[in-house]
Design goal:
Layout: H1 2-29, H2 33-37, H3 45-54, H4 61-73, H5 86-121, H6 126-140, H7 143-157, H8 175-200, H9 204-211, H10 216-244, H11 248-253, H12 259-268, H13 272-300
Helix pairs in contact: 1-13, 5-6, 5-8, 5-10, 5-12, 5-13, 6-8, 7-8, 8-10, 9-10, 10-13, 12-13
Length: 307
């Protein structure tokens, strides 16, 4: 497995470079950061030339990208237009997003997988019908509707949770945003878990375990779930990568100044160094999460071996 992980890490390099090149070209090649810096107001030509020279904007695009990659290799993602290093913005925003991600991902895994297993083992019953109907509803309602309704009911009407969450908020204050963030992924995880568990319940290795007289709990946990959760882990890995990117709508609703919130501000203000730096780090995080998911396959299914 060590050789496989090393090979996959090497494969991440061209993917990361290609993705960052695409984002860099779209942001710097299709717009004028200097005009964006002055909000498209008239600017003195001499000042504009000096700024373009200091920002390397008067060089060819491939030279600009090479200069950017050189900075990334040394841990420098550049500076935003207000002078703050992008790495400082990342270190400020990421803890808030990581806490929200941990809460939402825990709810998604525990509730989604739990409901999926229960409904698969009791197909056709009242619980199965109720969960299937609820998951369809959760998937149909947009996140901004769910967030606004829960924010009004739980935060304003009943006063159980805070309406907005500031920086450094305690874990309890993140439960409501975590629930909002986990609603749609939770429904997808529950439905996928139900389908895979129901399918594998008729598999040969499960029937053999039952025929040997093993306890029902051991059959479910050691023989049924381990093989059934492989596609679910793939889905969870994709969701975790999206959560680490900071879900923009949820962070905006609850005023959580995380990655999604900061990235939105960078796009709105056309702060190109912030956008490119954040997207580069997010792509790297997403690729590492997918690598972790691939390595988890061998732990779930002993039949899987990596060369």
């Amino acid at each position: 497995m060590g050789r496989y992980a090393a090979r996959r890490l090497l494969q991440l390099i061209p993917v990361l470079v290609g993705t960052s090149l695409l984002v860099f070209t779209m942001v710097y090649g299709l717009g004028d950061p200097v005009k964006a810096l002055f909000a498209n107001h008239p600017v003195d030509p001499a000042v504009a030339r000096q700024l373009r020279h200091s920002l390397w904007l008067d060089r060819p695009l491939w030279v600009q990208y090479g200069h950017y990659l050189l900075g990334v290799a040394h841990g420098d993602l550049g500076a935003s237009f207000d002078g703050q290093p992008v790495t400082t913005l990342l270190w400020t925003a990421f803890p808030n997003t990581l806490k929200l991600t941990a809460v939402a991902f825990t709810i998604e895994c525990t509730v989604g997988i739990g409901l999926g297993v229960l409904t698969a083992l009791r197909r056709g019953g009242f619980l199965d019908t109720a969960v299937l109907g609820a998951t369809v509803l959760l998937l149909s309602v947009p996140v901004f509707v769910t967030g606004s309704v829960l924010q009004y009911l739980v935060g304003v009407r009943w006063g159980i949770a805070p309406v907005t969450v500031g920086a450094g908020a305690p874990w309890m204050d993140l439960i409501l945003p975590g629930v909002v963030l986990a609603t749609a992924p939770l429904a997808t995880v529950a439905r996928l878990t139900r389908a895979t568990v129901a399918e594998n319940a008729r598999a040969g290795h499960v029937r053999t375990a039952v025929a040997k007289g093993l306890p029902r709990r051991r059959v479910i946990t050691h023989h049924l779930l381990r093989t059934s959760l492989i596609p679910v882990v793939t889905l969870l890995g994709t969701d975790l990568g999206a959560l680490l990117g900071g879900v923009l709508v949820t962070e905006r609703i609850f005023n959580i100044q995380g990655v999604g919130y900061t990235l939105y501000q960078g796009v709105r203000e056309q702060n190109t160094p912030t956008v490119v730096g954040f997207v580069t780090v997010l792509v790297l995080g997403y690729l590492l999460v997918n690598l972790l998911v691939d390595l988890l396959y061998a732990l779930l299914d002993p039949r899987i071996r990596y060369a």
